Structure formats: structure tokens, C-alpha cells
């Protein structure tokens, strides 16, 4: 498995995952998958371009509660093993390692269910750390639900140390969660 910058040659495999009801946003599930699928079908080039926004020039972001916030700089990479296997993203705030309250962590990832338990998330997170260092971050924070043992193992395998336990805001599910920090 390697990380690739999303490109036209990867798009059919990504679409196939969406059509199997995999979601790039597990908290929103199939609804998010359908929205992304509609975007890809309507404007494939625009969709791919939207995944690389280091200057935060894209449109504002609508949060699950309907509130709208400014976009953060960031980008996505796709996990690739000959076909689409998952996605990982990095976001940050210029000039500081701190994130605004609506951004629960610097890194988010998800692996398609049919490729889980192969070490892809751990490898992707480790690979993303070098890219986080390249944008000037001294550390990254990664959050997971307290009950998500698999994600906790991924984060710890990449060097994550528990930073705090907290409850996600209601618009993000209100679940007990853990924030890990990985020093770069």
C-alpha cells in the first residue's frame, strides 16, 4: 500500500468504493457517500482539485449542525494497493499547531471495510507524518471515539500518546473520545 495524490487514473476505483456504500465520512455514512458521488459525476476535475487545498481557497465548510466555518488549509491522499483502499487527510491552521474547536484533529483517515485489518491505516498515518512535518507542524493530533479500539491501536502504533479524554460536541455525535498527540 502506498499513498497517492488523487488523480483521474484512480477515480474509477474510488467511485466503485462509493457505489459499494463506503463513505469517506463514517459519521455521515451513505448520505455523505452519495453527496461525494454526485460531485464526482458532475465535475470529476473539480472534485479532484478540491482534495488539494493548501491555501484554503475552497468554499466554507458546513458542519453537521448546519453552521458554516472557514475552510482550513489541507489535502487528502488515497491509500492505493492497485485499487482504492481508503483515504487520509491532513489539515492545519497557518502559523500555529492549534486547531479551531470545530476541527477535532489534524489527521483523519478511513479504510474501505473490505481492506481493513491489513495495516493500511497505520502505514498511511505514518506516511502522513512526514507531510505534516513538511507543512511546519511540530505535532499532529488525532482523535478517535473511546470505543474504537482498532483506531486507538493505529494511532499508538504511529507514536500517538494520549493527550486528553473529552466528549465530542453534539454536532459530532457527543461521544466519549480520546485525543492523541504524535510529536514530529
Low-pLDDT parts are none
Number of strands: 10
* Major sheet: 5 strands, antiparallel
Mean pLDDT: 95
**Could you say which structural class the secondary elements and strand pairing correspond to?**
alpha+beta
Helix % is 25-40%
- Morphology call: globular
Query: What share of the residues does DSSP label as strand, in percent?
Result: 25-35%
Radius of gyration: 16 Å
What's the end-to-end separation, in Å?
22 Å
State the order of secondary-structure elements, H for helix, E for strand.
Answer: EHHHEEEEEEHEHEE
Q: Count every helix, treating DSSP H or I runs of 4 or more residues as helices.
A: 5
Description of the structure:
This protein has 184 residues and is an alpha+beta fold. It is built from five helices and ten strands. Strands 1, 2, 5, 6 and 7 form a five-stranded antiparallel beta sheet that branches. Strand 9 and strand 10 (176-183) form a beta hairpin. Helix 2 packs across helix 3 (44-50). The radius of gyration is 16 Å and the shape is globular. The two termini are 22 Å apart.
Give a topology summary.
Blueprint: E1 2-4, H1 8-19, H2 29-42, H3 44-50, E2 52-53, E3 61-62, E4 68-69, E5 74-80, E6 84-91, E7 107-111, H4 120-134, E8 139-145, H5 149-157, E9 161-167, E10 176-183
Helix pairs in contact: 2-3
Would you summarize the structure shown here?
With 184 residues, the chain is of the alpha+beta class.
Q: What labels would you give this structure?
A:
single chain; 184 residues; alpha+beta; 28% strand; globular
Amino acid at each position: 500500500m502506498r499513498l497517492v495524490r488523487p488523480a483521474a487514473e484512480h477515480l474509477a476505483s474510488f467511485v466503485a468504493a462509493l457505489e459499494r456504500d463506503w463513505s469517506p465520512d463514517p459519521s455521515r455514512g451513505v448520505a455523505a457517500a452519495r453527496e461525494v458521488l454526485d460531485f464526482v459525476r458532475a465535475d470529476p476535475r473539480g472534485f479532484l482539485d478540491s482534495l488539494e487545498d493548501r491555501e484554503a481557497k475552497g468554499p466554507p465548510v458546513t458542519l453537521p449542525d448546519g453552521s458554516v466555518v472557514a475552510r482550513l488549509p489541507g489535502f487528502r491522499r488515497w491509500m492505493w494497493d492497485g485499487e482504492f483502499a481508503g483515504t487520509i487527510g491532513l489539515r492545519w491552521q497557518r502559523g500555529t499547531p492549534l486547531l479551531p474547536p470545530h476541527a477535532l484533529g489534524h489527521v483523519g483517515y478511513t479504510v474501505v471495510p473490505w481492506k481493513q485489518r491489513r495495516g493500511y491505516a497505520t502505514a498511511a498515518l505514518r506516511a502522513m507524518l512526514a507531510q505534516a512535518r513538511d507543512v511546519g507542524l511540530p505535532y499532529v493530533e488525532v482523535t478517535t471515539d473511546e470505543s474504537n479500539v482498532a483506531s486507538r491501536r493505529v494511532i499508538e502504533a504511529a507514536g500517538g500518546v494520549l493527550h486528553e479524554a473529552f466528549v465530542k460536541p453534539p454536532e459530532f455525535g457527543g461521544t466519549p473520545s480520546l485525543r492523541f498527540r504524535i510529536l514530529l
